[in-house]
Amino acid sequence: MPSTTVDTGSRRGFYITFTVLLVVWAAVLMTIAVTVIPDGYWYSYFAIDYTVGFIRRGLAGELLGLFGKAHYFVGLAVLRWIPTAFFVAGLAAVAWSVAVRSGRSERRRLLALLTPVLPFGFAFGLFSARTDLLGGAALIGFAVALTRATTARATVIASAVYGVTLAVLTLIHEATPFLFGLGVLAALTVLARHLDTKALRASVVLALGPAILIAIALAAFGRRGVSAQLCAQVQHGPMNHPLAGKPTIGQLLRGFHYYVDYHDWFCRAFLPMFDQSFGDAVRFVGSIGVGPLLGSTVYGIAVLAVSVFAIGHVSGVPVARFGALLRARPVAMLVGVVLMVPVFLTGVDWIRWWVIIAFDVGIVFLLYVGGQPESDRPPTKRTLAVFAVGAILLAVIPVGIIPGFGAPVPM
User: Fold this and answer.
1) pLDDT tens-digit map of 111-135
2) Distance, C-alpha 359 to centroid of its chain
3) Exposure of 223 by Cβ count < 10 A (0-12 exposed, 13-18 middle, 19+ buried)?
């Protein structure tokens, strides 16, 4: 019976070719991000500080203050790349942990090459460059640490350190603990199976408790009705906003530029949400309509399925086994799902929320399969063929960068 494995020379050529293509792909996306995609929306996450009092996302604006008023837009241009840089570094840490720290093998190398093209991979970090990406990077650090923690004490310490970090990040983006709580609970459930119930509860409280308390405090005591005062803080300056110029598809593809005043745009398109109550946000989500929200849900579930089954196929580890581990702690998983509910209720980017769910689950799955015996087995020709086709499709069609159907574009 002929072998289904691939000879050593062919394998080496395959990995070299795919790595070169991956580098070229990343360079092309970076070029698009730098030359075509306007940065003004990402700037907006750093434009609010604590000048008017305790307000959500105020800590991000305090970072901008470090640059001084004379370098306002330079500071925004620098800060805009920090979430992407940390997130991409986190993805690289996952790839390294899987391909090197877990033990070298061909399947692990394939998993490392797969990581950047997954729906929550490099393209997502580049074209969804919001400050909550910092929470994703922190989750990666926590999950990787759990793969090295062999005692309950070490796990509890790692949870405490992560909890302090997450609390700080909540002051930069208030949804952070809700977006990545599922990932924290999945990581503790799957990667720290040595924990008894008492140690698990302590780890969960330390990892998520401080951040959730801060998020509640922001909801209860964060100032609203101060958009006029916040608007006065924002400086005037040109911002490239192509869609405001109503370009044709051809103009957009050629790199169409249309400049508006950043102060005026920010105060008109971004600031009103700072005056929204929880009920206002829920009503705004409802105004999108059942059709777009349902479409976003179906699309998002498909993204989650593609992510999980791609990892399972490349690693050779059954997805059902991973699912059984998650179901071993049903209460923890239920809590993680419940934490996502306020995000869906108050934010219209439903596909984005599903991509983050895929990230929460996918990162844990990647780190789990890296330590499984199936990852030591050489890949078959079929595995390599499916990997190559699937990875190229995911790279060419970055399905994770669509925020949601029916969501209005800030104009």
Assistant:
1) 999 999 999 999 999 999 999 999 9
2) 6
3) middle
CA distance 266 to 76: 13
Contact present, 118 and 314 (Cβ < 8 Å): no
407 contacts 288 by C-beta, under 8 angstroms:
yes
Question: From CA 127, how far away is CA 400, in angstroms rounded?
Answer: 9
297/150 Cα distance (integer angstroms): 38
166 contacts 208 by C-beta, under 8 angstroms: yes
Contact between residue 56 and residue 222 where contact means Cβ atoms under 8 Å apart: yes
d(CA 316, CA 375): 7
Q: Which residues are CB-contacts of 377 (< 8 A; sequence separation ≥ 6)?
A: 105, 107, 316
Is there a contact between 379 and 205 (Cβ–Cβ < 8 Å)? no
Let me know: does 57 contact 103? Beta carbons within 8 Å.
Answer: no
- Rounded CA-CA distance 140/254 in Å is 37
pLDDT in tens, 259-298: 899 999 999 888 888 888 889 999 999 999 999 999 999 9
Residues shown for the chain: 411
3 state SS of 260: strand
Distance CA 336, CA 319 (A): 19
Locate all alpha helices (DSSP H) within 237-380, ordered by sequence.
249-253, 262-265, 278-286, 290-315, 319-327, 330-346, 350-369
Cα 297 from Cα 284, distance rounded (Å): 17
**CA 185 to CA 203: how far, in whole Å?**
9
- Give the torsion through C-alpha atoms of 346, 126, 33, 39, to 10 deg: 40
Residue 355 contacts residue 119 (beta carbons within 8 Å): yes
